[in-house]
């Protein structure tokens, strides 16, 4: 008999470090394919956590670390009837660079994680402690700073490279123009024909080359850009209905649906957690 696992999500944003983190239990929820501007560093707590990343399907089990670089496209779903539970941290490249510089690392480039799944029980325990510290309303700034360094520095040193391989992002001026167009005019409605004309290539060539360069096809990349701007506007206090229109979504329900599919929470939950900085939803 198949068991039904109720979805449960908690989200925090730590004001001192700027790190966002999420603890979730999912049985029925599935993430759309998406990417983040920040790193996504997680630890599976329970169940089997399935996702596609860099052209492969991965399954994380309790105690394993998930390491994704900025712009790494991925999805996510339960790989078993029991669902799964996990923590996920979203540290920025700037935070990591600052830690490495402070530790005297040269060059202090943000790490590049070549392995999606990492087996390192000691570092996994440090990451879980960091999650608990950052979401603790009674925690203080010194403890948070120490916990960040204690968890992220060992992960970078043991499992990160100094930077991505040179071949990771091949230069292509025509495709870069498409990216810049979507980045700047995210609120506009585009047709693939428009992008093909801009690049001077066929629709198929543009879609394939864009996904190869940026990890997502043009439409998914545009949705990601709209959501990033929506987060900024929500943090600035703009009403969700106005945010939806400003970034190019059809209406507020469209924004909510896309937001939850990428982040696991609604725009209202995101804004409430960020307003209180440590308060659990």
Which terms would index this structure?
single chain, alpha+beta, 281 residues, 12 strands, 20% strand, disordered C terminus
Question: Can you walk me through this structure?
Answer:
By secondary structure, the protein is of the alpha+beta class. It contains ten helices and twelve strands. It has helices spanning 93-102, 121-134, 141-159, 173-184, 192-199, 203-214, 218-235, 240-247, 252-263, 267-276; strands at residues 8-13, 20-26, 31-34, 40-47, 49-53, 56-60, 65-68, 74-78, 84-90, 112-113, 117-118, 160-161. The strands form three sheets. It has a six-stranded antiparallel beta sheet with strand order 1-2-9-4-7-11. The longest helix has 19 residues, at 141-159. Residues 166-170 and 277-281 have low confidence and may be disordered.
> What coarse outline follows from CA principal-axis ratios?
globular
Oligomerization state = single chain
Widest sheet: strand ordering = 1-2-9-4-7-11
> How do the helices and strands follow one another from N- to C-terminus?
EEEEEEEEEHEEHHEHHHHHHH
How much strand content do the residues show? Answer: 15-25%
- Work out the number of β strands: 12
Q: Pick out the low-confidence regions.
A: 166-170, 277-281
The percent of residues in helical segments reads 40-55%
- Count of helix runs: 10
N-to-C CA distance? 32 Å
Radius of gyration: 19 Å
Condensed summary:
The chain is an alpha+beta fold and 281 residues long. The chain is 44% helix and 20% strand.
């Amino acid at each position: 008999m198949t068991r039904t696992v109720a979805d449960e999500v908690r989200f925090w944003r730590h004001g001192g470090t700027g790190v966002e983190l999420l603890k979730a239990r999912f049985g029925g929820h599935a993430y759309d394919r998406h990417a983040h501007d920040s790193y996504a560093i997680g630890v599976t707590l329970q169940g089997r956590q399935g996702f596609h990343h860099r052209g492969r399907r991965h399954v994380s089990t309790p105690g394993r670390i998930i390491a994704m670089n900025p712009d790494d496209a991925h999805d996510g779903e339960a790989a078993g009837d029991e669902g799964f539970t996990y923590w996920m941290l979203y540290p920025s490249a700037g935070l990591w660079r600052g830690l490495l510089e402070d530790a005297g690392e040269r060059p202090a480039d943000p790490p590049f994680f070549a392995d999606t799944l990492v087996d390192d029980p000691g570092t996994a325990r440090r990451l879980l402690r960091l999650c608990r510290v950052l979401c603790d309303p009674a925690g203080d700034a010194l403890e948070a700073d120490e916990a960040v360094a204690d968890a992220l520095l060992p992960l970078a040193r043991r499992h990160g490279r100094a930077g991505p391989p040179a071949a990771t992002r091949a230069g292509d001026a025509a495709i870069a123009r498409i990216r810049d167009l979507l980045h700047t005019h995210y609120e506009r409605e585009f047709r693939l024909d428009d992008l093909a004309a801009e690049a001077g290539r066929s629709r198929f060539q543009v879609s394939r080359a864009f996904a190869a360069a940026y990890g997502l096809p043009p439409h998914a990349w545009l949705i990601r850009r709209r959501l990033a701007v929506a987060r900024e506007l929500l943090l600035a206090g703009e009403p969700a209905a106005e945010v939806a229109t400003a970034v190019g979504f059809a209406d507020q329900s469209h924004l909510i649906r896309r937001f939850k599919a990428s982040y696991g929470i609604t725009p209202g939950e995101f804004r409430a957690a960020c307003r209180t900085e440590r308060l659990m939803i």
